[in-house]
Amino acid sequence: MKKKKSKNFIIGATITGIMLILVMIGCIWTPYDPEAMDVNLKLSGVSLSHIMGCDNFGRDIFSRVLKGSGTTLFVAVGTVFIGSFFGIVIGAFTGYYGGILDEILMRINDALFAFPSILLGLVFISLLGSGKYNVIVALGIAFIPSFARIVRSEFIRCKNMDYVRSAKLAGAGDLRIMFVHILPNTMNVMLSSIMIGFNNAVLAEAGMSYLGIGVQPPDASLGRMLSEAQSYLFSAPGYAIFPGVVLILMVLGFSLLAEGVKEN
Amino acid sequence: MKYFGKKLAGLIITLLVVSFLVFAAFAIIPGDPATAMLGTEATPERLAALREEMGLNDPLMVRYGRWIANFLRGDFGTSYNYSMPVMDMIREKIPVTITLTVMSFLMVVLISIPLGITCARHAGGRLDRAVIVMNQVIMAVPPFFSGILITFFFGLILHLFTPGGYISYTVSWTGFLGYMFFPAVAVALPKAAMAVKLLRSSVISQMKLDYVRTAYSRGNGTKAVLYRHVLKNALIPVVTFLGSVLADMVAGSIVLEQVFNIPGMGRILLTSISNRDYPVVQAIIVCIAFLVIVINFIVDLIYKVIDPRISID
Amino acid sequence: MKTKAVKKILLTLVCAVMTVALGACSGDKAAENTSSITIGIPQDIEDSLDPHKAVASGTEEILFNLYEGLVKPDSDGNLVDALAESHTISEDAKVYTFTLRSDVKFHDGSLVTAEDVKYSIERCAGISSGETLVAAYSAIESVNILDDKTVEVVLKEGDTDFLAYMTEAIIPASNEDPAGNPIGTGPYKFVSRTPQENFVMEKFDEYWGTPANIENITLKVIANSDTIVTSLNGGAIDMFVRVTQNQADQLSDQFNLMEGTMNLVQAMYLNHDREPFNDVRVRQALCYAADPQAIMDMNNNGKGAEVGSSMFPSFGKYYMEELNDVYNPDIEKAKELLAQAGYPDGFSFTLTVPSNYQQHVDTAQVLAEQLKAIGVTADIQLVEWESWLSEVYTNRDYDATIVGLDASSLTAASLLRRFTSTASNNFINYNNPEYDEAFAKAQASIDDAEKTEYIKQCETILAEDAANVYIQDLACFVALNKKYTGYEFYPLYIQDLSKLKFVEVSE
Predict the structure, then answer these.
(1) C touches which chains (3+ CB pairs under 8 A)?
(2) Could you write out the three-class secondary structure of C338-386?
(3) Chain A: residue nearest B141 by CA?
(4) pTM given for the model
(5) Across-strand partners of C221?
(6) How many angstroms away from the CA of A24 is the closest CA of chain C?
(7) For testing the chain C interface, which of A231, A233, A234, A239 should be mutated: the one with the most C CBs within 10 Å?
(8) Are residues B18 and B161 in the same domain?
(9) How do the domains of chain A map onto residue ranges?
């Protein structure tokens, strides 16, 4: 079989690439100050100078979408980092050693798995308080179980393979075997689940900000913008539609990438 | 029977672990219920007395034991904010959230199974390709955004329902179910898309297996093979999937309650979270977890019925 | 053939669900009860249904329909006799004597007696329990029953304003649980409430005065302010009392929009116990940086009335328009003051805002933007109303907050008393001996001109000391479905729902 990148991968990478470029541009430059208000531009529609129109404070929606996507992505990266880092460590140890520790951790893991990540996030938020960084921590912790579960099963699959045995015979320590020999072999599965993680993190962040317990105004966040836009569906439908579409594209990009990685 | 017993034991252990985790999480946070209850009237003596009365000086395990015993008896504690029993606060809300979740769950099943099979049968066809693309997109739409779009389109433009016009089931069951229809659609859409996709690929891969060829060679028609042999096997991953998204659907329901102004557990949960009304948060979280775990347990049993080969591992 | 059957079943199921859904909608429209109204409220009425313990304005304005005092305000701001048939005030303003009406019934059917009146007043004053529920009532020396129909209230010192406090509800002495089972004498009686969902009242048929028009009133909690517009347009609620200009612009033509003022003082209230707000220069800098007119322009198309101290225009003789100009927007001056105070590069603080009041959230966002010009960062923290009450108002655990404070009675003291250093509701921890003295003199004075003078002095101190960053008395837009009329504005934070009536709309 010819090694050809799948269509999903290409489309996903393109969308994600474009989003990343936009977000990066948004970090250093936006057409207008995303927080600058102008009473004359209140709820003005799409125009050449404001390509997505303006919100109820006369702020440029395009600039806010750029900034907001950045916030959303930032939270997603932080979340996935925390989730995957601890997930890998926990999954690696429990999968490799097994035994009573494994049993206990997996029971807890099973239990946590019963909570939807957004709900788990809510619980942590209620303990930590709201705000951008707390959202990252909350969602990050909420994401650990799913990563741990995947890594664990990969480690169980790999630990009796020939290359692990030969490494053992060569005198490699457990840690070395776990993180130098086994981990790289799980990369494909990991990559795919990291992409799915991004996908879920973006959705969860948007959901929490929509509920008003994530990112606080005037910080732009896609979820928050959607919540505010609800009052203006008639007079400024663009206020809801543009952030919504960007959110969808972001999620779509990650989910296609995840599938692409799996297919490759 | 042995299978059932083992699973049941696992279920009970998981429930205990979940409730303990939740209890412990709220027990170790700074600030204690006595201070919260007394507020500004707190004096050291009154605090000490109340702490003693509430048993806050006992070890964690003792408190947990007492709490879980009360919980099982339906006594969920008292809300700090409303000074009313948590049970009274959420009794009428639980059916709301459950109905929303179950309605959307049924929708997922009703949409995905026929659509998934049709797509698999005509794999590569025009309908199939259209559905694949639609699926990808729908999966990416956050439920609350589809909720907003539904409100706008079906509510404000087509007037098919009254946005915000929630009707309690105590007033009218039909009105209640009618209002819940659109929120349920919003919750169901992304999950239905995933289920269609899964079922489609599962049917297609089953169709390539040997037993299908054998069935064909015995002179069975496509339909007979599909419905008598393939479907049963192809449904297994879908059932697993449905079990695993259930938790997500409960969460989705909670978010959608906000979009459609439905006074279910979500509303109470959110206000309680921001008010640090921990007895309420605790009770609702544990209820939701119990709900998810129990339904998963039922899914497991169904699983066993569909596929007797499944071992307990 | 099996597939067809399955398909049929599925189709039937889908159709059934759809029919239920659609049928329900149309069915409800037909069965609409003409003598009921659903009104959206921005917060749950949960702080207490006990009229003497409720502190939230949102609760009090609704309780106005359930409870009455010996006197009550009318829509012109005059005090008229309610449960009292007449009253007299002694020369030295120390003795208030009330003659009771004979035919007034409580919602439970029992007659209002002089005992009930004495019980209610003493309960508020804390004469028997020692716990004063209504701060102003600490001035009461004794309550005496002269005969079945006459009650006398004796004050420790003369106070010409005291009649305004006699609006406190009279409740039956026999009711052991006023918070759980509210019994009053108002035109509406309590039916039920469901936390975070609704509050239901029905017309009290044995009301002594002009009976209410509408039979059933449901107050529906809409805590997510982003859904107010859709709820109104969709027909889920018939009325919402305080929509913003932006929201009003979104309403369809089935609504009448009435404009008035909210009768409150919207300001950024600062916690004077916190750095750097304990420094007057910092507070003044904030006042110079704030531009109330720009806030009104942005949020309410310029509508609203600027305020420069804790007094709003409806108060007439006490309101001092000149205080609006104590601090006109002046960024340079603000920066200079900040530099003097030791904050040349500004500072940041947390601005706690109740999320259910769109007006305050909007003001907060605009104000935060204005403060950036002097390098001050306001981190907005949205909280639920109940947390605001407990954390900000009760526990005073906050840096700054934006809310509107209203007058619970028609006296200047109801706005100003809270800033005296010993007031229990002094949630900004304001402590200024000069102010305390001026306020005490105003209270002690029985000469109207002199009293007004001292009150104005209080207002001036608040303004010059930049006690708070004063913004505006908000424009108030009442959205009322054209099926109803009769809404009346009061100079107080009150909703008189008994005057609402249902009218046929000609299509």
Answers:
(1) A, B
(2) HHHCCCCCCCEEEEEEECCCHHHHHHHHHHHHHHHHHCCEEEEEEECHH
(3) A248
(4) 0.78
(5) C41
(6) 24
(7) A231
(8) no
(9) 2-32+52-263
Residue located via tokens 């788990």: A120
Q: Which residue has the higher pLDDT, A66 or A56?
A: A66
Which residue among B151, B172, B181 sits closest to C21, beta carbon to beta carbon?
A: B181
Angle at which helix A61-97 crosses helix A7-28, to 10 degrees, equals: 120
Write out the H or E segment, with its range, that includes residue C10: helix C2-30
Classify domain C264-473 by CATH number: 3.10.105.10
Chain C residues with CB under 8 Å of a chain A CB are: 224-230, 233, 246-247, 249-250, 294, 297-298, 355, 361-362, 364-366, 368-369, 372, 379-382
Which of B14, B15, B255, B298 should be substituted to probe chain A, the one whose Cβ sees the most A Cβ atoms within 10 Å?
B255
Using the beta-carbon criterion (under 8 Å), do B156 and A226 form an inter-chain contact? Answer: no
Assigned superfamily of C38-45+186-261+475-502: Periplasmic binding protein-like II (3.40.190.10)
Burial environment of residue C123 by CB neighbours within 10 A (0 to 12, 13 to 18, 19 or more): buried
- A249 confidence band (pLDDT: 50, 70, 90): very high
Residue C6 has pLDDT above 60, yes or no: no
Between CA C105 and CA C204 the distance in angstroms is: 10
Q: Give the pLDDT confidence score for residue B193 in this predicted structure.
A: 92
Q: Is residue B92 part of a domain?
A: yes
Inspect the interface and report whether the beta carbons of B25 and A252 lie closer than 8 Å. no
| pLDDT score for B29 | 64
Whether residue B95 is found in the same domain as residue B227? yes
Domain A2-32+52-263: what homologous superfamily? Answer: MetI-like (1.10.3720.10)
Tokens of C90: 């002694």
User: Can you tell me the mean pLDDT for A77-86?
Assistant: 93
Class of domain C67-167 (CATH, top level): alpha beta
**Chain C residue nearest residue A58, CA to CA:** C298
Q: Could you tell me the CATH number of the domain that includes residue B192?
A: 1.10.3720.10
